[in-house]
Amino acid sequence: MECRTGCAACCIAISISSPIPGMADGKPAGVRCVQLTKDNRCGIFGHKERPAVCSGLQASQEMCGSTDQEAFERLSWMEQETAPSSP
Length: 87
Fold this sequence. Notes:
mainly alpha; 3 helices; UPF0153_domain; Puta_zinc/iron-chelating_dom; Proteinase inhibitor
């Protein structure tokens, strides 16, 4: 499956714990990555500064669904389900 251009659900819905240029501590879930352009494209796509977690993420029907909104909902759910439990 190819990514839907401009979707950016994976750049907003999920947390990223590794450093991102402009976000030294990564980013929490639900926060827009500073590297997203106005048209929701990755500003560091193909650059060595792009975190490995981003480069390794591959679009799939299970993850992305049929619409951008569905992708955001699915990724938000996955993030919530895999988040460490609070003591």
